[in-house]
Amino acid sequence: MTDGLLPSSQQSSELWQPNRSASEWSQRIVKVIFGTFAFLSIGTTVGIVLTLVYETYEFFKLVPIWRFLTDLQWTPLFTDSQYGILVLISATFLTSFIALVIAIPLGILAAVCLSEYAPRGIRKWLKPALEILAGVPTVVFGYFALLFVTPILQTFIPGMGAFNGLSAGLVLGIAILPTIASLSEDAIYAVPQSLRQGSYALGATKRETITNVVLPAALSGIVASFILGVARAVGETMIVTLAAGQNPRLTLDPRVSIQTMTSFIVQVTKGDAPVGSIEFLTIFAVGMTLFLITLALNIFSFWFVRRFREKYE
Amino acid sequence: MTTVNPSPLSDSSDQRFSPNLTGRYKVDQIFKIASWVATFIGLIVLAILVLDVLADGISSVSWDFISRFPSRRAENAGILSPLAGTIWLLLITAFFAFPIGVGTGIYLEEFANDSLFARIIEINIGNLAAVPSIIYGLLGLTVFVRLLEPLTGGRSVLAGGMTLALLVLPTIIVATREALRAIPDSLRLAGMALGSTRWQVVREHVLPQAFPGILTGTILALSRAIGETAPLIVVGAQTFVAFTPELSLEGFHSSFSALPIQIFNWVSRPQEEFHSIAAGAIIVLLIVLLIMNSGAIYLRNKFQSTRA
Fold first, then answer.
1. CB-based contact (8 Å) between A26 and chain B?
2. Which of A225, A227, A237 shows the shortest CA–CA distance to A296?
3. What separation in angstroms does the CA of B32 have from each of A186, A202, B23, B79?
4. Which residues of A, range 49-78, sit inside 8 Å of B by Cβ?
5. The complex's ipTM?
């Protein structure tokens, strides 16, 4: 390429010639390969959607959708099978709700502490420590819920089952706490200092500044962290499978054994359901429901953040 | 903030306003203490959890425990095959996820213009990160176990590793992009001013600088992957494997177990003895995770000190 343009290159070095076309070709090849890799992430999404849609479609050929939505019992493994997804949704809702009651206030207070109160040196240790909590495998949390938290709860709550929604929800809350704390902290930390100083100048105390100025300013990020926490709680599997049990029933009583959407999928896949059987198709219908719930949360979060994000120069 | 209580201070000025500073400071103090308590609750639970696991399981951890296969009798049971399975999964996952994740990260950060394609991938990666892991299990079951059965051998360690690779891909991509973004543009401009192509600049200058950061992110992502249980159960991990897979095609196609699967199996049994060996297996799993995480932290610190 450069040959025609630079006749002088012959005078300088005959020994070294940049091989422009080769390096441009290698760049083109690399771009194609990496572009294909990038495409794989779309492929994953398409794969998830196609898998779920196809098998769910097969499922609804056997079970009418209105029965799926309106039955009040979930007994797909019995001969007299009923497919009321509400049963599994209610259990998922219950454990997630308990988890959020724990994780939202604690998470937001922890975020405030890390961002506003903790001295730099201590913050440097606290944040990684919380990240360790986030890195504990959920099956370990499940062990903890079933064999440590439940026996303690049983000593003072009458009628507490060996499997129950409460201890699953409580430990689930601890498990999602770091997610909420860490993301909220990022949002709170990003609020410009001038806002705080403006508030102090009006005579507000530190706490008033935080609750009336800083938190509202960081609202979009905080809500996004809540929603990610909800999505985590809804999709979490091992804690609820181990601690809440496998007993599908339509109840909001946190003391008894219940079955969430995820623990149903585990129960069936553990038992080697034959491919194409109704049990096998059912897990995809449940998976689809779970996917749609997390997708809806995601879309809501996306919308909320765009709608309520405060921009500061 | 404003109260209607008249106080001696406000007599002379405005009757309706009382600063009530002592009261407000009291609330402030309570709020501050509450925030500290909230921060430490998580850490206290973490400490209790670790102590509880240690108390239950430390007695069952021994060399025998690590070098024996699982057994129907708790006192003879070991974790050799689940541990081997976990290491296999780790290698397979890294083999697929690392090049693909880093490649995607480089593509998006260094090559892609702000095109529709790039934006779609970006939003898509964000969405994938929020998909529950058990859904990845369903994907793996359909694609790797059933559709690609001739390649993967069905419910094999290969299918499990590939499923985990898809699961950690978004995390590795994000880590790669962040590491690349931390490299100043002046480096790229200098390279290109000397006549290098973009790829030469990336390969020779940007990547070596960003590599420790990428590696850190990858190790953290992989350490999440080996703690994952749900997708592996769905893909078809076994809970009773009495062999370690060989390093061959047969090995890739063999059925597998993994530490979290074994823990899950033991915890869900009613007998007390199995609970204490479950705690023993948890200790081993946590040690593996600790080693990986400290490796990542070591790399991060080394990286930060050389750049400063």
1. yes
2. A227
3. 19, 21, 14, 46
4. 51-52, 55
5. 0.88
